Amino acid sequence: MLTIRNLSKTYPNGVQALKAVTLDIPTGMFGLLGPNGAGKSSLMRTLATLQEADSGEASLDGIDLLRDKDAVRRVLGYLPQDFGVYPKVSAEDLLNHFAALKGYVNRKERSEVVAALLQQVNLWNVRKQKLGGFSGGMRQRFGIAQALIGSPRLVIVDEPTAGLDPEERNRFLNLLAEIGENVVVILSTHIVEDVTDLCSRMAIINQGQVLLTGEPLEAIQSLDGRIWRKVISKDELADVQRRLTVLSTRLVGGRPVVHVLADTQPEAGFEPVAAGLEDVYFGQLTRHRASLAA
Ligand code: ADP
Questions:
Q1: pTM for this structure?
Q2: Which of 5, 94, 259, 284 sits at 20 to 30 Å (Cα–Cα) from 219?
Q3: Do residues 27 and 150 both lie within one domain?
């Protein structure tokens, strides 16, 4: 269990990236969902000992994440948002190098660990190829391999599916789903489907604040019967947005389809739809933005 209590961070330029963030994160897949600029990376980097918080606490099974940095680094696997690789080095050589840094001093043991990881992430056949020629998906799978060196108990992946095509994304998420049961895995993302597909628990954050935490399914059920859908024309959109609580608008076949939150049918022509995590997410963001504007 990872516990985070009242974690706050203000950058020197005055941006308050984390505002008393409190979360309990059990083992398994945890989705940290929020728009760009919400504070996800700030939180991930703090937990990964790469930057300091101003105040608050964080601990993993008794390890003080904010003070006991050497202990954290022994149990941590981290795939940063901007994971760069050396383009002229082969996957096998670079992974071998990372394994040496992680403390695998015995050559034979190290090459066994590297081989097992390359197989796990399905890069064994291309292990001799230079990383510069890898696709985005291959590079992210390499990123997971390096994060898993040394069987970490806390795995942090920051926006890992941004920029992957649907097939690569699926492959990557399946790989994440296979990480051990006794590991805390935090998946930070702005993509709602990443959380829906994979995470048994989640939190939604915006402007450094936790808006909601719990199980995606429960959060979805709490909206049951309150999401209404209508296909409208583009001219109507602004009016509908003024009159009703519009959670989302997406174009289907070139026409806007709106989702509206309301306890009863808001207007003629609206039909009830099953709520999804996207409705939960946009519902939370809409409410939070309204409260900030008030
Ligand atoms: P996310 O990962 O959710 O996109 P970030 O944690 O990167 O969010 O950013 C949160 C806020 O903090 C943003 O307003 C961002 O501009 C700001 N920020 C992030 N890193 C820095 C930094 N090193 N210095 C100043 N402001 C920063």
A1: 0.94
A2: 5
A3: yes
Residues 147 and 14 in one domain: yes
Q: Which residues line ligand 1 (CB under 6 A)?
A: 11, 13, 15, 17, 34, 36-42
State whether 109 and 10 are in the same domain.
Answer: yes
Report which ligand 1 atom has the smallest distance to the Cα of 208. 10
Report the atom number in ligand 1 closest to the C-alpha of 13: 25
Q: Which of 198, 214, 230 is the last residue of a domain?
A: 214
CB 172 within 8 A of CB 161: yes
Nearest alpha carbon, ligand 1 atom 13: 37
Atom of ligand 1 nearest to the CA of 190: 3
Take residue 13 and report the two structure tokens written for it. 């330029």
Per-residue pLDDT of the chain (294 residues; tens, 9 = 90+): 999 999 999 999 999 999 999 999 999 999 999 999 999 999 999 999 999 999 999 999 999 999 999 999 999 999 998 888 889 999 999 999 999 999 999 999 999 999 999 999 999 999 999 999 999 999 999 999 999 999 999 999 999 998 889 999 998 999 999 897 889 999 999 999 999 989 999 999 999 999 999 999 999 999 999 999 999 998 999 999 999 999 999 999 989 999 999 999 999 999 999 999 999 999 999 999 999 998
Looking at the 3D structure of the chain, how many domains does it have?
Answer: 2
Among 194, 214, 234, which residue terminates a domain? 214
